[in-house]
Specification:
The protein is about 80% helix and about 0% strand. The chain is an all-alpha fold. Helix 2 runs antiparallel to helix 3 (about 70-85) and helix 3 packs antiparallel against helix 4. The longest helix has 28 residues, at about 90-115.
Length: about 140
């Protein structure tokens, strides 16, 4: 078992490397996330996304060619941004349920458009896939 013998120098280097790795891992684990700056940026992002949703809601009845997919995506992004900011598990769960409800609502809209001939089958399948993804998440 002569191959198990280490010099004092080698033992010291191995100990130093292990200590550095443990210190780095502990520091990364204990880091507070999000930082105040990140939280402020996340809040700004949420406000911008909510502005997009409000703008799309405002033009909802004014045009005959409304992009429901972009509207659905904007609503889902805004709700996801709220989830990122929320600290409470119950509130995050409630927001996720709102995402599922939003995808169900838009799947219904896509089905209605498909039935009357103003939407295509691909749009309906995309809405269904989004709903299923939301329910899985």
């Amino acid at each position: 078992m002569s191959w198990l013998r280490f010099t004092l120098r080698e033992s010291f280097l191995v100990t130093l490397i292990v200590a550095l790795l443990l210190a780095w891992g502990t520091q990364a684990y204990l880091r507070q996330w999000p930082t105040a700056k990140e939280r402020a940026l996340m809040q700004q992002r949420l406000e911008v996304l909510q502005g997009i949703v409000s703008a799309k809601k405002a033009i909802l009845g004014e045009t005959t060619k409304f992009d429901f997919k972009a509207f659905r995506d904007a609503e889902i992004l805004a709700l996801a941004a709220e989830i990122e900011l929320e600290g409470s598990y119950r509130k995050r769960l409630k927001l996720h349920e709102q995402i599922v409800e939003t995808t169900q609502r838009f799947e219904t809209i896509a089905a209605q458009h498909y039935e009357i001939g103003s939407g295509d089958h691909e749009e309906l399948l995309g809405a269904k896939a989004e709903r299923l993804k939301a329910e899985i998440d």
